[in-house]
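Incident log, support desk, overnight shift.

02:14 A customer reports that sequence design results differ from what the structure should imply. Their input is reproduced verbatim below. On-call engineer (initials T.W.) acknowledged and began investigating.
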């Protein structure tokens, strides 16, 4: 039997169809969120950009109050001591890594309360949280790998197999357009803001708040991840981390 070209090409067509189905599932999951964010933008009365910039800088200066230092051995020791002293924690989370992994939403909520007290009752904060949740869904669906991977399959099918995949390309482009996705699989927030008719000043202010919220959440996620890694890599010590 010679080179199974036809079978290989059929396999790639199957891979492409599977990926497109995943992309459609992503669309079905996020489209309501996108439309809701656009609706919120359309009805918002936006805050002067200088007020937002001042509040954003204040938030970033308060980072330590929002992000626990789970890389600190003393902090991990205190968490381990709490688990040892509390049957509920030990039964439900086992060790410090299990407990840390459960804290993300709680710490996010606390940080959001602090950011709310700094920004005040501005519409940008709620919209920024919604946009960051949307960005998180891109990670959930692994769009950063899925979309470039689909492009790669399409290129292979065209160049190696000579397959007509025009209808599949149209489907992919339609799904990406519906979700405002860029070629790298990330949401084009600027395009979403354009859909809501935002002017340059409103876009700049909302982008600043969105980036600030994203920075806080990323620092929280990184701290928790570092803490879990420290717990799992600890072999011995005066406290029980494993």
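02:41 Re-run completed on a clean worker. Output:
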């Amino acid at each position: 039997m010679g080179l199974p070209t036809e079978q290989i090409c059929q396999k790639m067509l199957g891979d492409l169809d599977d990926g497109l189905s995943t992309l459609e599932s992503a669309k079905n999951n996020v489209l309501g969120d996108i439309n809701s964010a656009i609706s919120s933008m359309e009805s918002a009365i936006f805050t002067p950009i200088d007020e937002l910039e001042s509040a954003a800088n204040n938030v970033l200066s308060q980072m330590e109050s929002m992000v626990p230092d789970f890389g600190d051995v003393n902090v991990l020791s205190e968490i381990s001591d709490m688990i040892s002293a509390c049957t509920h924690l030990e039964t439900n989370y086992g060790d410090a890594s299990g407990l840390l992994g459960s804290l993300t939403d709680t710490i996010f909520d606390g940080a959001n309360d602090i950011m709310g007290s700094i920004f005040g009752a501005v519409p940008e904060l709620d919209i920024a949280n919604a946009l960051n949740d949307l960005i998180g869904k891109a990670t959930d669906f692994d769009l950063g790998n899925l979309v470039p991977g689909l492009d790669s399959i399409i290129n292979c099918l065209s160049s190696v197999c000579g397959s007509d995949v025009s209808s599949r390309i149209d489907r992919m482009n339609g799904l990406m357009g519906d979700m405002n996705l860029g070629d790298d699989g990330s949401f084009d927030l600027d395009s979403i803001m354009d859909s809501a008719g935002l002017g340059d000043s409103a876009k700049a202010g909302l982008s600043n708040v969105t980036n600030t919220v994203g920075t806080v959440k990323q620092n929280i996620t990184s701290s928790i991840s570092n803490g879990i890694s420290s717990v799992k890599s600890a072999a011995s010590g005066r406290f029980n981390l494993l």
